């Protein structure tokens, strides 16, 4: 009876089989391949890209007590990439004792997200015996500005009036005008900040390229924004670029090993972070490699299935 | 020390914090502007389009002047006074930039509330009229109120004189409102934000498997380039091949032409010589379109839907 | 109970709720979707005042008293004018007066479009400049350690020709405003289309990297941060 039921059901050809893996099976396989490698200690070789090396070298060459201005335009929706970028950036800035001001123009959540990450990394570095970074003294959070175009133009034109009236909280103190912070001591224009660093997952990269002219810029962007921003790096509009988790992994590789050819040193404390699996790029990259293999496999399977189906149809 | 001496000079445009004079001026300004708005609402229909065109044009004109008008130089002279009308105009345009940026931030800030107001209107109506799935609307409103309440409560604490003693990481200085704000913002909102975006990965996998086929020349080129880019992210393939080329094929000679066969060099060449100019071309095309659109909006040449 | 564990547990539950949609649409997913919308809107309301309007508008309008040794600032009453103008945006809900909402939107759009001229110049002129690459070689075939800096080798000149050809062909693809009759222009436009595919392939590859990273980050949060370092750690250290 079972044979009768299946008698008239045509058997799927090899080509059709290869092209018809159910959606839930695909999702399940991806879920597994995105999870299991995280438990393993896989060390992958890595050659940092030129723009990542330029980013790291530029920051490492800054003397202590230099100042940079950071536009932090990301939230936890892109924590996997932007979070890793921000953590790596903060570890470099804090270890090198570079002061920074931070503002956001993309998302109302962004300043709070940035504050949380800064507090966590500052504590991590201090616990490891590194510099103790205090809010207001070593960094200020300048708030959120909903109009990105006007704000960034104002920042370029006159950074002091752009942030006039903004207040931040020193440790143990009360809301105080940011212009009294040591971060703004001696600052007369944007040119007094050695670099303008953008950490973004939104279109503020184009807005900033169009408006910031007085100081060199370096960007940290998500993977999808890399192809477009590489053109800005190639034309010299950017002095360094960190793109996606590959960029984060490049930065962590450089923090661990330095760049001997350019005589750029490694960053103290990175070995311990790697041992304790606190480096996001290093943790995610092997799993990403395996997931990409999986995707390539399925794309090939689909195309081979199409090829077989065409042959069978002929 | 009389700290008031450090204040901006007193003028018609300002007043001392908390003074009756300042509050009177603020209320008068509100009343006069509101009066103007009511008058505008009663204006005949023929006036509407010219008003909007004028507002848009004048707003854009400022930045066009900011770009075209000669920038002031040598403002470090002690008096910082303009020497002639031209310089006075350039000083004014430059000094006004910060105020214009503030105005745009304030208007944009108020307009953000529009989306929230719209959301609340829809969901409160659903709750009141007990429409389908009104329970979910109640969940939304409760979440919104909870986040707003604890967000402001936490902020108000940090504004107080002892605000600086409240850290942003959990500590003994935290009260219930800090824990609640942290749980709602960091514990729930941030994680769900990340979760929403990560779901797309599954759909990319499914879509790439089902639709990414080399059916035409264009699709084949796209497929091959995507594969090269993905392979370039895999150091596990790149490093052994590059070492083989550098060591065995090129014999350790850095000047050997065969070094060009390294995956890293090949990818860098493709990226620099074909990918970058292709994307640059796309960017130019988009840029010219944006410029044309910007001019059309500034000059109100764009035809819009709705009442005119 | 350990607060950190409770916080992570809430995040894991919410993430699983959102992922349940991958199986099929269900009420558990819809519950968490509405929680997400509510929290995001609530935070936007908070940040609107605390991060933006309070310092940019309110303290500028009413001034401030001395704090931490800083001088008081005067209040500028003219900022009050912006309130009725901004609130005009809310007339979009009125059938009779919704044209008034175009006034604040016109201000924002006018300011944005006025910036486009200088913005276009800053963004594209450097790119146009660096696209003008030399194509006539004056050196050897390939670059090596003895090549004098500034010399253009034959291989580099060929690369530059490919670069220029790519830019011009891709640009020629975007000529839509006139009818393309010339055979040369038609062929360059076709070549431009193929070269565009290389750009799109790069964008696809990078997009895949990004989305997979976001997924891996969520898995890391659930399995490593919560399960391994949270629950297992708490149970083994009791």
Describe what this molecule looks like in 3D.
The complex is a heterotrimer of chains A (314), B (308) and C (238). Chain A has 314 residues and is an alpha/beta fold. Chain A is built from 13 helices and eight strands. Chain A has a single domain, classed as Rossmann fold, CATH 3.40.50. In chain A, helix 6 links the parallel strand 2 and strand 3. Chain A starts with a helix and ends with a helix. Chain B has a domain at 234-298. In chain B, 30% of the residues are buried. In chain C, helix 1 (3-19) packs across helix 2 (27-62), helix 1 (3-19) packs across helix 6 (183-236) and helix 5 packs across helix 6. Chains B and C meet through strand 1, helix 1, helix 2, helix 3 and helix 4 of B and helix 1, helix 2, strand 1, helix 3 and helix 4 of C.
Keywords summarizing the entry:
A: 314 residues; alpha/beta; Rossmann fold; 6-stranded parallel sheet; two-stranded antiparallel sheet; C: 238 residues; 3 domains; 6 helices; 68% helix
Task: Describe the secondary-structure layout.
The complex is a heterotrimer of chains A (314), B (308) and C (238).
Chain A: H1 2-7, H2 14-18, H3 23-35, H4 50-60, E1 67-73, H5 79-95, E2 99-104, H6 110-127, E3 139-144, H7 148-157, H8 159-162, E4 167-168, E5 176-177, E6 195-200, H9 204-211, E7 217-221, H10 226-234, E8 240-243, H11 244-257, H12 270-275, H13 280-313
Parallel strand pairs in A: 1-2, 1-6, 2-3, 6-7, 7-8
Antiparallel strand pairs in A: 4-5
Chain B: E1 14-15, H1 20-41, H2 45-68, H3 85-128, H4 134-159, H5 176-198, H6 200-211, H7 217-232, H8 235-249, H9 263-298
Chain C: H1 3-19, H2 27-62, E1 75-76, H3 82-87, H4 102-131, H5 154-173, H6 183-236
Helix pairs in contact in C: 1-2, 1-6, 5-6
């Amino acid at each position: 009876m079972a044979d009768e039921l299946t008698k008239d059901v045509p058997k799927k050809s090899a080509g059709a089989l290869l092209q018809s893996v159910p959606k839930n099976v695909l999702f399940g396989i991806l879920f597994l391949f995105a999870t299991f490698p995280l438990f393993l200690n896989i060390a992958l070789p890595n050659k940092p890209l030129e723009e990542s090396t330029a980013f790291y070298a530029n920051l490492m060459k800054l003397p202590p007590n230099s100042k940079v201005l950071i536009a932090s335009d990301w939230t936890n929706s892109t924590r996997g990439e932007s979070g890793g970028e921000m953590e790596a950036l903060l570890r470099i800035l804090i270890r090198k004792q570079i002061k920074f001001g931070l503002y956001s123009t993309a998302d109302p959540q962004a300043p709070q997200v940035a504050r949380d990450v800064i507090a966590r990394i500052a504590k991590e570095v201090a616990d490891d015996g590194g510099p103790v970074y205090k809010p207001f003294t070593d960094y200020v959070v300048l708030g959120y500005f909903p109009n990105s175009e006007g704000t960034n133009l104002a920042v370029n034109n006159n950074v002091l009036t752009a942030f006039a009236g903004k207040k931040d909280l020193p440790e143990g103190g009360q809301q105080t005008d940011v212009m009294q912070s040591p971060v703004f001591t001696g600052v007369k224009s944007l040119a007094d900040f050695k670099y303008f660093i953008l950490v973004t997952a939104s279109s503020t990269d184009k807005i900033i390229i169009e408006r910031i002219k007085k100081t060199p810029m370096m960007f940290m962007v998500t993977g999808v924004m890399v192809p477009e921003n590489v053109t800005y790096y190639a034309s010299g509009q950017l002095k360094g670029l960190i793109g996606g988790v590959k960029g984060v992994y490049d930065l962590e590789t450089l923090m661990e090993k330095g760049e001997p050819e350019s005589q750029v040193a490694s960053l103290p404390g990175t070995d311990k972070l790697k041992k304790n699996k606190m480096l996001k790029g290093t943790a995610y990259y092997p799993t990403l490699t395996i997931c990409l293999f999986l995707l390539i496999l399925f794309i090939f399977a689909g195309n081979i299935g199409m090829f077989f189906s065409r042959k069978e149809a002929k | 020390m009389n700290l008031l001496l450090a204040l901006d000079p007193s003028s018609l445009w300002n007043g001392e914090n908390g003074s009756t004079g300042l509050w009177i001026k603020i209320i008068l300004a509100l009343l006069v502007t509101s009066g103007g708005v009511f008058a505008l609402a009663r204006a005949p229909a023929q006036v509407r389009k010219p008003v909007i065109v004028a507002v848009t044009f004048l707003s854009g004109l400022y930045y066009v002047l900011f770009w075209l008008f000669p920038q002031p130089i040598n403002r470090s002279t002690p008096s910082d006074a303009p020497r002639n009308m031209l310089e006075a105009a350039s000083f004014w345009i430059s000094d006004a930039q910060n105020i214009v940026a503030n105005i745009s931030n304030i208007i944009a800030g108020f307009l953000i509330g529009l989306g929230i107001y719209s959301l609340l209107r829809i969901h409160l109506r659903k709750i009141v009229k007990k429409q389908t799935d009104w329970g979910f609307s109640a969940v939304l409103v409760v979440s919104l109120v909870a986040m707003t309440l604890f967000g402001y409560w936490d902020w108000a604490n940090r504004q107080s004189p002892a605000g600086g003693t409240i850290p942003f990481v959990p500590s003994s200085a935290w009260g219930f409102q800090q824990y609640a704000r942290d749980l709602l913002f960091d514990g729930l909102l941030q994680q769900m934000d990340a979760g929403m975006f990560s779901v797309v990965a599954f759909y990319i996998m499914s879509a790439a498997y089902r639709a990414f086929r080399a059916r035409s020349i264009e699709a084949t080129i796209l497929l091959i380039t995507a594969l090269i880019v993905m392979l370039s992210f895999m150091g596990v393939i790149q490093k052994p091949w590059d070492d083989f080329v550098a060591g065995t094929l090129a014999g350790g000679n850095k000047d050997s032409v065969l070094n060009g066969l390294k995956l890293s060099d090949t990818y860098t060449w493709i990226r620099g010589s074909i990918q970058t100019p292709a994307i640059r071309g796309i960017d130019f095309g988009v840029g010219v379109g944006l410029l044309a659109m910007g001019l059309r909006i500034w000059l109100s040449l764009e035809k819009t839907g709705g009442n005119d | 109970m350990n607060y950190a564990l409770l916080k992570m547990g809430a995040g894991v539950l919410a993430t699983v709720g959102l992922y349940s949609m991958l199986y099929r649409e269900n009420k558990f997913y819809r519950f968490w979707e509405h929680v997400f919308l509510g929290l995001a809107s609530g935070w936007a309301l908070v940040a609107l005042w605390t991060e933006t309007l309070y310092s940019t508008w309110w303290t500028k309008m009413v001034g401030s008293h001395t704090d931490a040794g800083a001088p008081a600032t005067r209040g500028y009453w003219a900022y009050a004018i912006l309130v009725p103008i901004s609130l005009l945006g809310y007339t979009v809900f009125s059938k009779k007066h919704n044209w008034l909402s175009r006034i604040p939107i016109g201000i924002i759009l006018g300011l944005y479009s006025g910036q486009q001229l200088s913005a276009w110049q800053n963004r594209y002129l450097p790119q146009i400049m660096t696209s003008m690459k030399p194509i006539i070689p004056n050196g050897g075939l390939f670059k090596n350690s003895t090549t004098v800096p500034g010399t253009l080798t034959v291989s580099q000149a060929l690369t530059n020709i490919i670069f220029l050809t790519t830019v011009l062909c891709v640009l020629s693809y975007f000529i839509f405003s006139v009818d393309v009759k010339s055979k040369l222009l038609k062929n360059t436009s076709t070549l431009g289309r193929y070269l565009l595919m290389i750009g799109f392939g790069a964008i696809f590859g990078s997009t895949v990297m990004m989305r997979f990273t976001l997924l891996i980050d969520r898995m890391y949060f659930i399995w490593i941060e919560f399960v391994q370092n949270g629950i297992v750690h708490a149970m083994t250290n009791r």
